[in-house]
Write a structure and sequence with these properties.
200 residues; alpha/beta; 8 helices; transferase; S-adenosylmethionine-dependent methyltransferase activity; SAM-dependent_MTases_sf; Methyltransf_11; methyltransferase
Length: 200
């Protein structure tokens, strides 16, 4: 964890290590979808020689470009930007998928990934009441502790709430669009999907 990351905390940053651990050995080019002001992209750059971050939010991209790094920041729409198919060894996305149609977003990420590459997503979904109430109450308690001890960093990017899909729907979508992917629901109101694209 970098000094920058260590000074900041929120639910998304808490799960950055899950993304970083998924980076495959030898990865040469990474894409951060919905990079915001670039914190995760800069973390990925410590392991991957070439990193591209893309976001629709101009103020966030302006902040990202103020950092002295060699990450390539793109102001644009990930769904329509003319990236070459199968051109990334790792694609990361944190708290972005619920800003778009999830099937379209996951399919686009899958198509931009090279064979053998890894897709790592941390996302937001909607709870199903009352079944999820005990888990959500536990999340509130743990979040309160973290905020009391670490504070909470407010990112500059726009927010979408509530997320359009439930956790169960996201699990089903991951299995459909990314067969063999690993889906996990996390305590702090997030889920993750990790998928390695088959070589053939």
């Amino acid at each position: 964890m970098t000094e920058e990351n260590g000074r900041r905390w929120n639910h998304n940053i808490h799960y950055h290590p899950r993304i970083l651990r998924a980076i495959p050995d030898g990865a040469q080019h990474a894409l951060d979808v919905g990079c915001g002001e670039g914190m995760l992209a800069r973390e990925i750059r410590r392991s991957v020689p070439r990193v591209t971050g893309i976001d629709l939010h101009a103020p966030s991209i302006d902040q990202a470009r103020e950092h002295p790094d060699d990450v390539g920041y793109v102001l644009g729409d990930f769904l329509t930007h003319p990236f070459e198919p199968a051109s990334f060894d790792v694609i990361a996305s944190v708290a972005t998928l619920h800003h778009m149609d999830a099937v379209t977003g996951l399919t686009r990420m899958r198509d931009l990934l090279r064979p053998g590459g890894v897709l790592a997503v941390v996302g937001l979904a909607r709870s199903t009441m009352p079944a999820d109430l005990p888990r959500d109450l536990a999340a509130v308690a743990v979040s309160t502790f973290h905020r009391a001890t670490k504070g909470k960093w407010e990112h500059p990017s726009p927010m979408v709430w509530p997320p359009p899909a439930t956790y169960r729907q996201m699990r089903a979508l991951a299995a459909e669009v990314l067969p063999g992917s690993r889906y996990r629901r996390h305590l702090l109101l997030r889920y993750s999907i990790v998928w390695r694209k088959p070589q053939n």
